[in-house]
């Protein structure tokens, strides 16, 4: 991942990881709206906690995608079809761990959302955006991050091919 950041620029890596944050907002705002909760400090705390989990999803997904692509490069298969297969393999490897993480987080948050008693009103407002975001973020990141990785990797491969072509032309002249 560090080598990828050095080659492609740290900003591209940063953009890929932070691309998961809007997925969190979609689910969190959606559930706050459905429950008729106003955005409060407690809700903002829920969004902050959820942003950390979402960023973790993005980092791990990118690691798996890059690892699957690196295996293909070592095998010497670097066509567009191989890139798509590598992305598919890397994304499929993340389905079960991501589903388990979401299930455990939801199992901890749903009793908080349904609870009643002292302090439960504040805790419900913390849990609501987290539950909504934990529903949408993994689903959207399973599709959007691999697609964005495919587009960025194809662009990088095209630029590398053009540069190599230009160097050969210049060396021949």
Biggest pleated-sheet summary: none
By helix and strand content, what is the structural category?
mainly alpha
Named CATH topology: Multidrug efflux transporter AcrB transmembrane fold
**First-last Cα distance:** 37 Å
CATH H-level homologous superfamily name: Multidrug efflux transporter AcrB transmembrane domain
How many domains make up the coordinates? 1
What keyword list fits this structure?
173 residues, mainly alpha, Multidrug efflux transporter AcrB transmembrane fold, 88% helix
Task: Give an overview of the whole structure.
This protein has 173 residues and is an all-alpha fold. It has a single domain (2-159), classed as Multidrug efflux transporter AcrB transmembrane domain (Multidrug efflux transporter AcrB transmembrane fold), CATH 1.20.1640. 88% of the residues lie in helices and 0% in strands. The chain has 7 helices and no strands. It has helices spanning 2-8, 10-18, 21-34, 41-75, 80-93, 95-114, 120-172. The longest helix is centred in the last third of the chain and has 53 residues, at 120-172. 25% of the residues are buried. Mean pLDDT is 81; it is low at 1-7.
At a glance:
By secondary structure, this protein is an all-alpha fold. The protein has helices at residues 2-8, 10-18, 21-34, 41-75, 80-93, 95-114, 120-172. Helices cover 88% and strands 0% of the residues.
Topology (elements, then pairings):
Layout: H1 2-8, H2 10-18, H3 21-34, H4 41-75, H5 80-93, H6 95-114, H7 120-172
């Amino acid at each position: 991942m560090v080598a990828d950041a050095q080659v492609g620029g740290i900003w591209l890596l940063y953009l890929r990881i932070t691309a998961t944050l809007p997925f969190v907002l979609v689910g969190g705002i959606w559930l706050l709206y459905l429950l008729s909760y106003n955005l409060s400090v407690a809700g903002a705390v829920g969004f902050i906690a959820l942003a950390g989990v979402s960023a973790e999803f993005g980092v791990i997904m990118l690691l798996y995608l890059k690892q699957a692509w690196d295996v293909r490069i070592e095998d010497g298969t670097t066509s567009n079809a191989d890139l798509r297969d590598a992305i598919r393999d890397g994304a499929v490897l993340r389905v079960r761990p991501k589903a388990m993480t979401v299930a455990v987080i939801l199992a901890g948050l749903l009793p908080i959302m349904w609870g009643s008693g002292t302090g439960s009103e504040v805790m419900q407002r913390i849990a609501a955006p987290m539950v909504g975001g934990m529903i949408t973020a993994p689903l959207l990141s399973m599709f959007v991050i691999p697609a964005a990785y495919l587009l960025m990797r194809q662009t990088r491969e095209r630029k590398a091919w053009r540069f190599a072509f230009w160097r050969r032309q210049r060396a021949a002249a």
